[in-house]
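Render this sequence as a predicted structure.
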Amino acid sequence: MARYVGPVCKLCRREEEKLYLKGERCFGARCALELRAYAPGMHGRKGQFRRKVSDYGVQLREKQKARRIYGVLEAQFRRYYAEALKRPGMTGVTLLGILERRLDNVVYRLGFAESRAQARQLVRHGHFDVNGTKTNVPSMILRPGDAVAVREGSYTNGYFAIVKDALADRRVVDWLSRDETRLAGQVVSMPTREQIDTPLKEQLIVEFYNR
């Protein structure tokens, strides 16, 4: 499957805000946005004085920001939106709920990875079981009651020894539960909008697709 392989710090600079795509580095002085707080490219500095952005431009940027935060390509993002549109309730909130329940995001939210990109790589390498079955599909959408655990064969991996020591400093969101001893977790409930701390204005994404 195709994926973005370029420098992710450029994505934060393009959106002119931190998207926290590189984990701990985003909180330190080495963050690219701290060093160069302007858009990438030869005209990046001039962009600071660009004319007012249209409504379409604002909506587009919000949609692009959501895609970049969750690491989803355009075609897949459109499928998620189409699925959210069919379900009852507020389409934007439903869309965020679908994105949050992706396996790679759940692994990240459980604290088993520093970033969603790292979580996606760990899943791809087959380090996790879902409901007792090995899976390597980061885009799997989980439901309440589904259990995620580090595979028994991966316990000896030095990375997970480091993760186990770091879990005490990594908070778990309310719609998930975590067993730090077993390096496992479970989806307790569907995430509500109040439980999703992603800095997005989902209504702008809905307006973008409904224009």
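Summary. The chain has nine helices and five strands. The domain at 1-51 is CATH 1.10.1050.10 (Ribosomal Protein S4 Delta 41; Chain A, domain 1).
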